[in-house]
Amino acid sequence: MKSLLASWESLCATSGALRFIDVNLRGVGQVMFQDNPLSGALFLAAIAWGSIAAGVPQVLFGGLLAVVAATLTAQWLRVEPASLRAGLYGFNGVLVGLALATFVAPGPLLWAYVVVGAAVSVVAMEATANLTKAWSLPALTFPFVLVTWLLLLATYGFAGLSGAALPSAGVVAPFQSMAATRLDAGLFVQATLLSISQVFLKGSAIAALLFLAGLAVNSVAAAIAAVAGAILAVITAHALGAESDLITGGLLGFSPVLTAVALGTVFNRPGLRVAAYAALGTAFTVVAQAAFNVALTPLAIPALTAPFVLVTWMFLLPRLALDKR
Amino acid sequence: MKSLLASWESLCATSGALRFIDVNLRGVGQVMFQDNPLSGALFLAAIAWGSIAAGVPQVLFGGLLAVVAATLTAQWLRVEPASLRAGLYGFNGVLVGLALATFVAPGPLLWAYVVVGAAVSVVAMEATANLTKAWSLPALTFPFVLVTWLLLLATYGFAGLSGAALPSAGVVAPFQSMAATRLDAGLFVQATLLSISQVFLKGSAIAALLFLAGLAVNSVAAAIAAVAGAILAVITAHALGAESDLITGGLLGFSPVLTAVALGTVFNRPGLRVAAYAALGTAFTVVAQAAFNVALTPLAIPALTAPFVLVTWMFLLPRLALDKR
Amino acid sequence: MKSLLASWESLCATSGALRFIDVNLRGVGQVMFQDNPLSGALFLAAIAWGSIAAGVPQVLFGGLLAVVAATLTAQWLRVEPASLRAGLYGFNGVLVGLALATFVAPGPLLWAYVVVGAAVSVVAMEATANLTKAWSLPALTFPFVLVTWLLLLATYGFAGLSGAALPSAGVVAPFQSMAATRLDAGLFVQATLLSISQVFLKGSAIAALLFLAGLAVNSVAAAIAAVAGAILAVITAHALGAESDLITGGLLGFSPVLTAVALGTVFNRPGLRVAAYAALGTAFTVVAQAAFNVALTPLAIPALTAPFVLVTWMFLLPRLALDKR
Description:
3 copies of one chain form a homotrimer. Chain A is 68% helix and 0% strand. Chain A has 15 helices and no strands. By secondary structure, chain A is mainly alpha-helical. The longest helix of chain A has 25 residues, at 108-132. The model of chain A has no long low-confidence stretch (mean pLDDT 94). The two termini of chain A are 34 Å apart. The radius of gyration of chain A is 19 Å and the shape is globular. The interface between A and B is large, with 38 and 34 residues.
């Protein structure tokens, strides 16, 4: 693997076009914190599979268009070259593109919207990074959440864009328990896998396996944390009596998966105390996800990865010496 | 009083168990900024009276469970010992416990929820303190508000937890004036006292007197500020024509009481200009309380002490030299 | 012009009363970033014209009362003299007064509300300035937005204040396309001008011309940016298919106008790259305006200049070297 990546790196050093592809692939990889073009390529394969299998190839196109637009914008804005090359200006863009193409009906205005959204995501990334630098906090996917929320909310004010797949506005009301739905072994595995694939807004077990492969080629610990986080999220949601459709569709689990990877492997050195801390954060992200789902009910937009951002920032800010004995 | 506290302190120095009790009592005392175990004990007596008299002993249990869980979590996370010993990691926890047990129907899941909420309140406290350190701002009860809002909102997404005592979701609409309700002397005194007891989510005049006693044993100025703040809040709310039930139940006054104590005695040296400044902040907290009540109407959750946190931060940030001549 | 201003300045140096008038005029001028008493006087003339022509002279009175109350409060709080003299403590106040008198029915309680709101806007200004100093960010109109939102929301909780001209609470729903309304040349010009006058909550073409004159006497570049921003906003809103009434009334354009002036002339040195960057920000402010309009639908309050504040902060934070070659 390493020699493969080394060969690719020397190829990129000789060609601007290949370097551009490399930067965009790393941008896709950074959605799950992996600065690795192979991870990005596998993630892209998963997005492609998930989009085409679900009959929405435009979602793949939206993601590709957005990551390229974001990278070009970052180049035009002359951001810091090392961060650019590591894909840090691409991951919010690709998510903006995937989300817009998922929730808004396709058409020329949508693609213009995607390009503007991706460009603004770069500005938002730089803004967030400067804002959180004082606390050594990473920007995470906050730029994606902020820009996409604004873009999705605005569709309700524009005749040119139809948020066809957005939820309808509802009234906050006590939870209606569904007829007893047993979470058997099959559904449990499905819920776990889809919690991983929904990080990229995909509900596909095969895509989930490709995402895990993409994680594993760069960090086996990250792949383990993702699976462990997904399992913990499903168990927590089930214990609290959350709606089965949300659980089995992975919609309560994708934010916790990101929290688990971030707190358990990326920003802390793995260990027993770190694992316990990350588990608390992961379980609380399930609560936060449910809370955001409720809070956004009157606004008719999805929570995206806001619960992950909020809880992970909350758990990173304390700067605890968790890995000391 | 001082010798009593000194004896208690030397007892605590010899016993881990007594020290643990001391830290938890101080945690309760810090809800109203008092680093004093006797204040905490009196506050606890008030909580006990208010809970048992209202037929909801589980609220007392929730508060006790939460403060102990918060202290244990803080020890496990190895927070700064001096702050821990001063009770600064307990006050948000006890409030989380009181609020959850007040609004959610009791049961095993509720107690698990309280323990998780109290543990996360410690993380949120450390996060908030690190965040606001750059401006020398205290965390106040922001961790309590943030964590409790998430936990309460999430109950609408879980069949296992029933927010039985939460408000119903409503639509924001012009205020319907009630049939002329005269705020006579008796109701005025009740409104003032309940504004104090509602700091701990209690609607009881006797509890209010115990809270005032708990303040007075550590700071007579704080007790005076609490009463003055409550009176000012009731007058302001009445002048603006707020609903009588909210006024007489103390529900527009508890945040202003905290603002008055914080701005008038804890974070500024008392004096004439400080009193005027604190009065402006206290009166504006009534407006903020009404505003939060309205803003949270569609979300069916209570404002908690968010108005106090917002206005007190706003009035502390300017770093004015109010006590200079 | 310069000699006129110099004469005025020497007059002010000899008279406390004239200095007080000067400070208040500059306060009005700072709503659009102009530290110039003549700009303030022309803006005031525009407000007067717009208020009286629309049959709401109380709005003019509210603005005047508020700016005076804000200046007096700032003096009492002994803020930094140079900033005070530049009008930096007045512009949020005048906007609070204009907004309250626009949306709330007149009466003695309204004027008390305006005075308190203006006083608190000074505290909020100082708080915001201290908060954003670490990033060298200007406070913009954030204090106005925060204080006015709280004051307007609270009217729904008070019988004494009637938010007669506030929007009704609605449910977020897909946009209903209006019968094809062609944006002909006349409507286009109207939409552009009203986008400028709505910065001061006025829907008047003559007021708009007075505002432009007030800009031009201090900064021709600012006047050009305002017109260019308004045109770009109208085109963007039209291209996205926004409701014609909002466009032709200038209600989607006033925040973008402020963004254009701020990003294009005040905080960046004008140039080609800066113009492109400001244009992106201005177009995105139209999206943000639509998004805030939707998000505030359940809360029945207007967005005010929140979209401008959010987007301008987002575009200022990156500290890009846009004016370098």
